[in-house]
Amino acid sequence: MAYETIIGLEIHAELKTKTKIFCNCSTAFGSKPNENTCPVCLGLPGTLPVLNEEVVNLAVKAGKALNCKINQLNKLDRKNYFYPDLPKAYQISQFDLPICSGGSVEIETKDGIKTVRLNRIHIEEDAGKLVHLEYEPYSLIDYNRVGVPLVEIVTEPDMSSPEEAVAFLKNLKNILEYAEISDCRMEEGSLRCDANISLREVGKKELNCKVEIKNINSFKEVQKALEKEEKRQRELYEYGESYKIKQETRRWDSAKGRTIVMRTKEDADDYRYFPDPDLLPVVIEDFILENAEKTMPELPKARKQRFATTYDLTEKEIDILTGDKYLADYYEGLVEKGCESKIAANWILGDLFRLMKDHEGDFDDIPVKQDHIVEIADMVSKGTLSSTAAKEVFEEVFNTGKEPKVIVEEKGLTQINNEDEIEKAVIEAMEKHPQSVEDYKSGKLQAIGFLVGQVMKATKGKANPPMVKQMLEDKLK
């Protein structure tokens, strides 16, 4: 029997605010454990929450960016559960009246463009971080993250493969970054994903029992976790053991490469939602909606279209450059500083990509200043630096931050354009390799490439390659 996969996602994105959702504590990442806490976010008796206005503004902007309906009257609710990551024993969230409803995100699939519908976006406070110590009978708790404002973005079960789920996540991350709603740093936990997955017989309309997978912190791990859970459920159906698939929460163990049961999945009734008595309903005035539209930055789709009409780039180059806001900003900064559009793309997609990958860096923290690339490109265009030497200089700038001119002087990399020097090296190469000379004269034209390489080797890469090739051609004729 054929089965199809059904996937829905719940994404938590930390909002780009300086303070928490209900108090003035900092949201800065990397502080000492429990440093950014106060009586309000610790839920001490007698304290009252006050809603951060910027949280509402950013949630409205998220709704606008993701084609949602903004509910101008919404409220905050208490979601009750007893777990040490929230000291109040409840979380302030939204239940039946979320701030945004509906919405959609387009993704590219092997069958073309697909629209993934959103169910809702709601605001809530984050929970603390538990540190489970191996071989110890206790866990540690860091409450710094308690009260950090989140939007939870819930999709409809519209994705039918792990690849589609990853494509959706990448597009969503891109939109949130472009709209300046969240920094989306998955390694810091500011973008997290829970995935709901089930299988059903092809042609059947009813959904079967779903499993939620938690603890997924990268695109690669999302794909791996969904593939493993998909395989597990498929095997249970094929062996007639579908009764073993229960509505439960499982966590992804990347080290073991499998999903592990955490707890039986709760229904909404188990959380005993009720309106938070300490917080008034949220009324969103028309001017807030208008301001969200006026202040909306250029979104990925619009930027991609503008790149196509503005710069001399291929479709693939545009896809890569606009696929990350920080990378697109860096590229446009290069062009604005005078670097030709194609040359700027070549530096970024070639040497910069290679070095960033080797150093596992993020594009929001590129160590090479744009002025440095412009300077290197200028030296190449003027003939001061060969393309080979330019790569060496670029790598040195990446690793040390030194000025390109300083590196060129220290390493003596200035390109040789003097005809007498180049002619001397050309004659020596021809004398040392007479067989290559004969090969070229007998019709093996590729032999000249070997001779060019020998000249470049003798001059330590400093000879002007076009001049070398032209001089060799003249003498060989």
Total helices: the number is: 15
Query: How many strand segments?
Result: 17
From the alpha-carbon coordinates, what is the Rg to the nearest angstrom?
Answer: 29 Å
Query: CA-to-CA gap between the ends?
Result: 72 Å
Largest sheet: 10 strands, mixed
**Portion of residues within helices:** 25-40%
Overall form:
elongated
Structural class: alpha+beta
Number of domains as seen in the coordinates: 3
**What would the average pLDDT be, to the nearest integer?**
92
Beta percentage is: 15-25%
Low-confidence stretches: none
Can you describe what's shown?
This is Aspartyl/glutamyl-tRNA(Asn/Gln) amidotransferase subunit B 2. It comes from Inconstantimicrobium mannanitabidum. It is a single chain. The protein has helices at residues 53-65, 162-178, 219-238, 286-294, 300-310, 315-322, 325-336, 341-358, 370-381, 387-400, 404-411, 419-432, 434-441, 447-458, 465-476; strands at residues 3-14, 69-70, 73-74, 77-80, 90-93, 100-101, 104-109, 112-125, 129-132, 139-142, 149-155, 191-201, 211-216, 248-253, 258-264, 274-275, 282-283. The protein contains 15 helices and 17 strands. It starts with a strand and ends with a helix. The longest helix is centred in the middle third of the chain and has 20 residues, at 219-238. Strands 1, 2, 6, 7, 8, 11, 12, 13, 14 and 15 form a 10-stranded mixed β-sheet that branches. The protein has a 3-stranded antiparallel β-sheet with strand order 5-4-16, with no helix packed on it. The chain has a two-stranded antiparallel ribbon with strand order 3-17. It is of the alpha+beta class and 477 residues long. The chain is elongated and about 90 Å long. The chain folds into 3 domains: 3-288, no CATH class; 308-407, no CATH class; 419-476, Arc Repressor Mutant, subunit A (Orthogonal Bundle). A hairpin with a 2-residue loop joins strand 7 (104-109) and strand 8 (112-125).
